[in-house]
Write a structure and sequence with these properties.
Tail-specific_protease; seven-stranded antiparallel beta sheet; 2 domains; serine-type peptidase activity; 2-enoyl-CoA Hydratase, Chain A, domain 1; five-stranded parallel beta sheet; 10 helices; endopeptidase activity; ClpP/crotonase-like_dom_sf
């Protein structure tokens, strides 16, 4: 026991020396960043913050300015072990992060008596969100005029973005009420709600639409399709369908970042996108990793499996 105590004293002494030997602005920047992680991270109660602080200051011991700390900050964020948080230095230009072309997701073909809705990723402005909601609701309305045995909701390839337009766009299929939760490290839950064209976190209005849909499809048979590229907000939609009546999920486990992130700007203009909550379903079961489908099938059999289940349920 004494040995461990002496080791801790040595590490603490070394850390103090390190903090005293680096420039003040560097020390303050590291402290600012570590304090943010300690206060907000979804895994904050699982980390020894004294050891964490010592480790990060050691990593940055040769830093002469704030920019020199960036590798240590990236390392610190990785040590949170949530697989979702990331550090974006102010020196990273928009061209560095936005020149990659986004994947094109095409709709599948289903039988005439099976409705089909693909929920793609959602990235853009408020105006883009309105267009996103309108397009999906129009597709639902157009198909709802047919005599359908059920619906396919396709989340494959949906790597995330803004969950709220996604959720509001499928209100006719998922219904109103509490559909899931954000759960923080202290087991405090904040509800995801849809109420008549409006989406809320608890009682805080997040987004709304003026596109009204009269037909209630929330009890129809519905198969949710997922794959290994269903991630982040795409996983939130998969969670929202847990315990919906007459629903089952098919495909492969999701990517595994079912956590709620918030972006924080640091004093130098850099940002940390920080995972602060776990997604939880209507029964407050917490996730945080991959969402396992009810029926795990090979990727080329996913759509077929969903359709066959719908037909089976109609017998």
């Amino acid at each position: 026991m004494k040995i461990f105590y002496y080791i801790f004293l040595i590490l603490a002494f070394t850390s103090c020396q390190t903090q005293n030997s680096i420039p003040k602005e560097v020390s303050e920047y590291l402290t600012e960043t570590i304090n943010l992680l300690e206060q907000k991270s979804v895994n904050r109660n699982e980390i020894d913050w004294n050891e964490f602080r010592i480790d990060i200051f050691q990593k940055a011991r040769d830093a002469k300015n704030i920019q020199d700390t960036y590798p240590a900050i990236s390392y610190a964020v990785s040590k949170l072990n949530d697989s979702h948080s990331y550090f974006k230095p102010v020196t990273e230009t928009e061209a560095d992060s936005e020149n990659k072309p986004l994947p094109m997701l095409s709709d599948e073909v289903t039988p005439e008596d099976i409705g089909y809705i693909r929920i793609p990723f959602c990235i853009g402005t408020e105006s883009d969100n309105d267009v996103y909601i309108a397009k999906i609701r129009e597709k639902i309305e157009a198909q709802s005029n047919k005599e359908l045995k059920g619906w396919i909701l396709d989340l494959r390839g949906n790597f995330g973005g803004n969950m709220w337009p996604m959720l509001l766009s499928i209100e006719p299929l998922i219904g109103n009420g509490t559909l899931g939760y954000f759960a923080d490290a202290d087991n405090k839950y904040r509800a995801w709600k849809l109420i008549e064209g409006k989406a809320y976190i608890d009682d805080q209005l997040i987004i709304e639409t003026n596109i009204h849909f009269k037909k209630d499809l929330s009890n129809t048979f519905l198969a949710v399709l997922t794959d290994g590229q269903t991630a982040s907000s795409g996983e939130a939609i998969a969670v929202a369908f847990k315990f919906r009546e007459n629903s089952k999920s098919f495909g492969k486990p999701t990517f595994g970042v079912s956590t709620g992130c918030i972006s924080h700007e640091l004093s130098d203009g850099s940002t940390i996108n920080l995972a602060e909550t776990l997604f939880a379903d209507r029964k407050k079961t917490k996730y945080g990793s991959s969402i396992i489908p009810d029926f795990e099938v090979e990727e080329d059999q996913t759509l077929k499996a969903g359709i066959e289940w719908i037909y089976k349920m109609n017998k």
